[in-house]
Design brief:
2 domains, UDP-N-acetylmuramoyl-L-alanine:D-glutamate ligase, alpha/beta
């Protein structure tokens, strides 16, 4: 039998992984995941689910909802991606990660027949999650799409509720080069006669309305509605206010569907997200002096929100530990960060990382104060040794930079 690490090596190295390698790992139909789940007796049909898509905020929204269900006493599955430190973060039940032994046994037992289909890393992972939720008899699973929606492997679910957090520019090489096209891909998770909550329509309301009408799905736009006064969450970051509003109206819809979640349980779930689900990397404060924060924002909309929050923070000097992936419009993203900072440029140790040499060219072109480091750990250590107590250190630009810094 393989060890856990050997099992992960098999999944990571032999199969395409979008997060590591980019577009070439993206499958353009649901045939593989349907075939895999058919071999598993269609576990996705054995539990209730909530399906969440969106450019930004879908991970936070998924964790919030899972925490709320947990506080209401439901056995709650949670599937998210990517992970930061441990593959098992992707698959949780009531906050507990899937056991290493279960991952090993699943891969060993199904490898031979699965290999005939040649599934991607993501398809393997979705099949494992759905099988785990079925075996453990969860009451409900909160499932986040990996990329897009329409062709995402998770889109074989028949959920109780669908949620689309927002739409902005990201993964344009796969999802399309306009908000209209991206919205159409996200709207692909809307199911027949299944309520859908739109967190922020991002100017694409007509697309969502049209898709919902075609599917006879009741649609609710959270951004246009008030929420209860005093509603808050333990997740930091100004952008969580929008996610909070989305979750609040999802809760209203879930109550109408018959889920027994009281208002006090909603409140407790929202202020206990980190404790209940172990969410990390969202305006995560690592130190108070110097104030050090890490955030996985990695596209235009997300980074704009982060930069606004950085500007509001009272600090003497700003230190930015920054790296990107190579399939973004990095020059545009780099321009969003304040020029008046010291940059510690780096790259994560994944094939998809933007080479440090390319990033230094952009820094020279923009004429910012920078130093280049071959690893994230080195860059972070240098920032820590340079920054004074009154300063601020921010770590970001890429999920993988944050992962290696934590």
């Amino acid at each position: 039998m393989r060890t856990y690490q050997e099992t992960l090596d098999y999944l990571f190295e032999q199969l395409p992984i979008f997060q590591r390698e980019g577009k070439k790992a993206y499958k353009k139909d649901l045939g593989n995941i349907r075939a895999l789940c058919s071999m598993l007796n269609d576990p996705q049909n054995s539990f209730e689910s909530i399906h969440i898509a969106g450019t930004n905020g879908k991970g936070s929204t998924a964790h919030m909802l899972a925490s709320v269900f947990h506080e209401a006493g439901y056995k709650t599955g949670l599937y998210t991606s990517p992970h930061l430190k441990d593959f098992r973060e992707r698959i949780r039940i009531n906050g507990e990660m899937i056991e290493e032994e279960r991952v090993i046994k699943f891969v060993e037992f199904h490898q031979e027949k699965f290999n005939a289909i040649q599934p991607s890393f993501f398809e393997w992972t979705v099949a494992l999650a759905f099988d785990h939720f079925n075996q453990e008899k969860v009451d409900i699973a909160v499932v986040e799409t990996g990329l897009g929606g329409r062709l995402d492997s998770t889109n074989i679910l028949s959920p109780e509720l669908t949620v689309i957090t927002n739409v902005s520019f990201d993964h344009m090489d796969v999802l399309g080069d306009s908000l209209n096209k991206i919205a159409l891909e996200k709207a692909g998770i809307i199911k027949g006669e299944t309520p859908v909550i739109i967190g922020n329509d991002s100017g694409q309301a007509n697309i969502f309305k049209e898709k919902a009408a075609q599917k006879k799905a009741p649609i609710n736009f959270a951004q246009k509605k008030p929420i209860a006064e005093g509603l808050t969450t333990d997740l930091k970051g100004e952008y969580q206010k929008e996610n909070l509003q989305t979750v609040y109206w999802a809760w209203w819809e879930l109550r109408k569907l018959g889920w027994k979640i009281s208002y006090p349980q909603l409140l407790k779930g929202l202020v206990s997200v980190v404790k209940n689900t172990a969410l990390r990397g969202r305006w995560e404060v690592l130190s108070s002096a110097p104030f050090t924060v890490a955030d996985i924002a990695h596209n235009e909309s997300g980074i704009k929100g982060i930069v606004e929050q950085i500007k509001q923070f009272n600090k003497k000097n700003l230190h930015l530990v920054i790296g990107f992936v190579n399939d973004k419009n990095v020059e545009e993203l780099f321009q969003l960060f304040p020029k008046e900072a010291h940059y510690y440029l780096t790259q994560a140790s994944i094939p998809r990382a933007l080479p440090l040499k390319e990033l230094t060219k952009l820094a020279k072109k923009r004429e910012v104060n920078f130093t280049a480091y071959s690893s994230v750990k080195e860059a972070y250590k240098a920032a820590q040794s340079t920054a004074q107590k009154e300063d601020m250190i921010y770590i970001g630009g890429s999920t993988f930079v944050v992962a290696e810094a934590l």
